[in-house]
Design brief:
Elements (H helix, E strand, L loop, with lengths): L1 H33 L11 E6 L6 H12 L11 E8 L11 E8 L2 E9 L6 E2 L3 H4 L4
Antiparallel strand pairs: 1-2, 2-3, 3-4, 4-5
Length: about 140
């Protein structure tokens, strides 16, 4: 009986750690996005594990150009495992459909890169410094 109670306690503690860890990641990521002027809904709408390639392929070379423009650099994280969190942007300054998203790439629970994009077929992807470049900050 003691083993069952111990096992249940471990499962409950693990579930609580995962739930609070996810919330903490959302808070950290929202603060990271706020530092660039972005406001997002509190909870991520998607998260996915990704491997940052080493060496970078063409997609990551182009993505890193966006990062460099925003004062970030993915190169130190080449070959690392990451988590991409996606949030709904609530302060996009132009008349866009409500499908503007902010992605944050985290390595070891720390935001290291990100972008603003839309899921529309004729959509766009921009660096996190978009608001600054547009003079909206």
């Amino acid at each position: 009986m003691l083993y069952i109670v111990t096992a249940v306690m471990i499962l409950v503690m693990a579930a609580a750690f995962i739930a609070f860890g996810e919330e903490s990641a959302d808070e950290i990521n929202a603060e990271f996005l706020r530092s660039y002027g972005w406001e997002v809904k509190r909870k991520n709408i998607e998260s996915a594990r990704v491997n940052i390639p080493e060496p970078f392929d063409l997609v990551y070379e182009n993505y890193n150009k966006l990062q460099l423009e925003a004062g970030l650099d993915l190169r130190p994280y080449a070959g690392k495992k990451a988590v991409r969190y996606t949030y709904e942007v609530i302060n996009f300054p132009y008349d866009e459909p409500k499908n503007v998203r902010a992605n944050v790439l985290c390595v070891a629970n720390e935001p290291v890169a990100g972008d603003i994009m839309t899921t529309a077929a004729d959509g766009f992807m921009a660096g996190l410094d978009f608001l600054e470049k547009e003079g909206a900050v």
